[in-house]
Amino acid sequence: MKVLVAIKRVVDPNIKVRVKTDGSAVETANVKMAMNPFCEIAVEQAIRMKEAGSVTEIVVVSIGVMQCQETLRTALAMGADRAILVETTAEIQPLAVATVLQAIVGKERPGLVIMGKQAIDDDCNQSGQMLAALLGWPQATFISKITLAGDHADITREVDGGLENISVKLPAVVTADLRLNEPRYVTLPNIMKAKKKPLEIIKPDALGVDVTPRLKTVKVAEPPKRGAGVKVADVADLVNKLKNEAKVI
After folding, report:
1. What is the pLDDT of residues 39-59, one digit of tens each?
2. What is the predicted pLDDT for the residue at 39?
3. Using CA atoms, how far apart are residues 109 and 59, in angstroms rounded to an integer?
4. What architecture is domain 2-244?
């Protein structure tokens, strides 16, 4: 079975995010970028499925600027077989992601699509659900365990009340949660091998997809600085401050 994994290039989660001086967006120029952590978990899961013999091919796809090739090469070094870059400089919003992936799915015919549950830059948590709706496929979000069993997948997903066990027919769209697995480190030999793996670059127009943004960002601002903490003498003093100063009780 072929598995398609969608990945996104984001600002490295280990660095401090800065807002542009004009408040239009987050600063990405001369900033270290990396694969979205939830997408990395999705890639790792596909690789583990292949190692277990239930998957025959892993195709990774990303949408964005040419520098996304670096992120795709990382996925190839982890163990993916092929990569596709849908190259565009436009701001890519969730519906555009889902529409592009719908076209890629029509071309590749995978038996399963794995995505991160959300990207850490916009935290939208929408693309996986939108893709499933466009395809008319079953979906399972926030998965922490998946087992392929013939024409269906047995899945454990994280919900507010704890864990939920479900079974979905294949093909399906699933989104990876944090506890699904721990991604492997990429070794130098595999980085060198990844340079020889195929990476196809196409434009949205070639897929017949319009990625023009439908939403406009009015302003981006940093959260207000947190005030310094204070020590209280006793419980009565704490209750007094919560009641009269913080106004929370």
Report:
1. 999 999 999 999 999 999 999
2. 97
3. 11
4. 3-Layer(aba) Sandwich (3.40)
